[in-house]
Amino acid sequence: MDLLAYWKLKERPFEATWDTRFYFQSRDHDEALNRLTFLVEEKTMNMGMLTGEVGCGKTLTRAVFTKRLNPDRYCVVTQENSAFSFRDLLGGVLQKLDPNGKGHTKFARCDRLKLITERFHAEEKHLVLVFDEAQEMSPGGLNELKLLTNWNGGGQNFLTIILLGQPELRGLVSRLPAIDQRISLRFHLGPITAHECSAYLRHRLIAAGHSHGELFQPQAAERIFNTSKGIPREVNRLAKLALEYAWLCEMPSVMETAVDMIVRDLSRHQTLCAA
Ligand SMILES: Nc1ncnc2c1ncn2[C@@H]1O[C@H](COP(=O)(O)OP(=O)(O)OP(=O)(O)O)[C@@H](O)[C@H]1O
Ligand SMILES: [Mg+2]
């Protein structure tokens, strides 16, 4: 019997994707979503920043946030990778909004984007630019984002910029007062708690088609939490391997020994790699 049939699943529950169907609303993820939504609805703030440890769920939260916004009122353009010059970043944004437009200098691109935001505003639509992996931006490139922040009218900004990035983004921003002062809303996404980790495992199993999601014994879930320190990407990696191991051993549910085996195997190989 294959893995899915053995565990009575319709699909694999712990894959490294940004499938919003698997989104689990922890306290922190919920707060991050609420703050981002407030930021774009308010329209009086220029910029927001969501930081968080590697693998905490920034990109998935961004995907859920984008999906939940009403497309009649918001146009969200996302740069998945921000390791480009300011001019190239603008080019990437315009490629999605105005692919046939003319004018490719930095200032021509700024002007084109300004016209687009004004047109959207006239149509009662708001433009949101999201720069993921913003910790990869050069300080100069990041600083130039200020050129996009003074387009407004009637007390409302025509554009909201959201920076997403790993913790070092905070340091980068703090050295750029012009950007730091424009970031009105910020949030740092932390790991999930032990209690949330058990609920997270259950939630992803149910999203993958399991009837009740109780496949991990409490001690196994606890061991996953302690090893992953509540970082969802690490939780996924351990849970996926433990589910496979327990299937191969024909365990009735995922026992602590399965997680133990996986953790020992991973640390042995990581030690070997480091040697
Ligand atoms: N709240 C959540 N609900 C369900 N799955 C989650 C959640 N948060 C994170 N994950 C899962 O954990 C993995 C890592 O998430 P994601 O890529 O969004 O993290 P990240 O913070 O953007 O990481 P990086 O710093 O590497 O960019 C993904 O597979 C994602 O599906
Ligand atoms: Mg990410």
SSE arrangement:
Blueprint: H1 3-7, H2 27-42, E1 47-52, H3 58-68, E2 74-79, H4 86-97, H5 106-122, E3 126-131, H6 139-143, E4 152-153, E5 156-157, E6 159-165, H7 168-174, H8 177-180, E7 183-189, H9 194-207, H10 218-228, H11 232-248, H12 256-274
Parallel strand pairs: 1-6, 1-7, 2-3, 3-6
Antiparallel strand pairs: 4-5
Bound molecules: adenosine-5'-triphosphate and magnesium ion.
Describe the structure.
The protein is of the alpha/beta class. It folds into two domains: 3-13 and 192-270, Helicase, Ruva Protein, domain 3 (Orthogonal Bundle); 27-189, Rossmann fold (3-Layer(aba) Sandwich). The chain is built from twelve helices and seven strands. It has helices at 3-7, 27-42, 58-68, 86-97, 106-122, 139-143, 168-174, 177-180, 194-207, 218-228, 232-248, 256-274; strands at 47-52, 74-79, 126-131, 152-153, 156-157, 159-165, 183-189. The strands form two sheets. It has a five-stranded parallel sheet, with helices on both faces. A hairpin with a 2-residue loop joins strand 4 and strand 5. The radius of gyration is 22 Å and the shape is elongated. The mean pLDDT is 94. It binds adenosine-5'-triphosphate and magnesium ion. Adenosine-5'-triphosphate binds at residues 16-18, 22-24, 26, 29, 52, 54-60, 166, 232-233, 236. Adenosine-5'-triphosphate is lined by residues 16-18, 22-24, 26, 29, 52, 54-60, 166, 232-233, 236.
